[in-house]
Specification:
Length: 78
């Protein structure tokens, strides 16, 4: 009976260690992606279609931001 309790405690300790290892892996896996999204990808809105696009892909004209050359021209002629 005493051995069963010891085995139970041992299993519980192993379970806690494995859970800690799993959490540690998840944290180190999530950290780089969230910091990358926070720094490099700034989203801007297209003045013509109201779509959100990455700032480095945006086209700027007459103080407005556009998602494509097509929408810049479409807004300019209207
Ligand atoms: Zn657009």
């Amino acid at each position: 009976m005493g051995r069963l309790i010891i085995e139970g405690i041992t299993l519980w300790i192993i379970f806690q260690v494995l859970r800690g290892v799993f959490r540690g892996h998840r944290r180190s896996f999530e950290a780089p992606t969230s910091s990358l999204a926070g720094t490099s990808q700034m989203m801007v809105q297209c003045h013509h279609c109201q779509d959100y696009i990455p700032a480095d892909r945006a086209i700027h004209a007459r103080g407005h931001t556009y998602c494509s050359e097509e929408h810049r021209r479409a807004d300019g002629s209207a």
